[in-house]
Structure prediction request, 379 residues.
Amino acid sequence: MDVSPRRLGTEPVRRDAGRVDARPRHLAGLLPRLGPNWFAAVMSTGIVANAAVLLPGESSVLDGFAVVLWTLAALLLAVLLGATLAQGYYQPHHTRRHRENPTMMPFYGTLPMAMLVVGSGALIVAQGLLGPTAALAVSATLWTVGTALGVCCALIVPYAMRTRHGLTMADAGCTWVLPVVPPLVSAATGASLVAHLHHGPARTALLLACYLLFALSLAATMTVIPTVWRRMVVHSSLPPAQAIPTLWNVLGPFGQSITALFLLGDVARGTLGARWGDALQTVALAYGIPALVVALGWMGVAAVVTVRTMRDHLPFTLAWWSFVFPLGTVVVGTSLLAAHTDAVAVRWLAFALAVLLVGLWAVVASRSMLRTRHVVLTR
Prediction:
């Protein structure tokens, strides 16, 4: 019978056991499963909060609902950032594995977008909770860091996918918009920061930088979307069942571009003058209406494919968050279009899409909580 100290559990712990053995035990089962795609939950929760505030009309119930969701998104962002740093320290091989996985690499775009959405919400949702000064500081910090990471992601990830993994545009899927769309989110969320700057060169420079981010990101995303369209419609090539929700990612660039143009046009009037402001708002309106029509058309196609797949089998994965954030951007864009046109039909469309958005968020959030609980209990 083995009665060694190791067997009895009385052997002293080696002080040089290494940092992997020193990590908290509950992290051992969670950190390997943590990937950049988890940040999709943050950006999706944050966009629901922002959309609730920007809906036409005023409602204290919606405002309170938005504050609760923004707080949840902010806490989740802090937890995931800490867990990501812990993974990089305790288990760097898992972080390296994500970087070397061509399927996971596009999801690095969700990290900067999560920071940008939460930062934007600090000003438009949680200013009463945080106070004006703290809200502006949080928003400016997250926007600066998120924009820097987003630009790096838009440049590095596509290059790495092409050089390291040998992928071409013929291999493009709906997740390929994720690494190139963050600068578009920066353009939309940066408008609120422009409004808080005093009139002068800094305000003008930030406004022009947002328009530049808008143009570069939209051009990049428009190289991916036609390829996906040809593959899906012309060649009848659909993603596997577990990736079907990513079809909804295509809505994101349309919704964010509509949002960016309207918000930037609003602050352009007070920055560049009435003449330029009116011209840029006209551009936003001329772009927003057809872009919304295209987005709704794509949403119809994606919905049909999703329902058809659900009849067979649509397994739950974190890709289900693709139902939420892209639709949230469309809700925000529709709300801004309704505010600038005062069209009753567009107003009711915004409310209808918002109801669908909240329903989808509730379903995906509850399923994600059950999935996380299962991971914790079976670690």
User: Anything to note?
Assistant: Residues 119 and 138 are 6 Å apart (CA to CA). Residues 274-312 form the longest helix (39 residues). DSSP finds 15 helices and no strands in the chain.
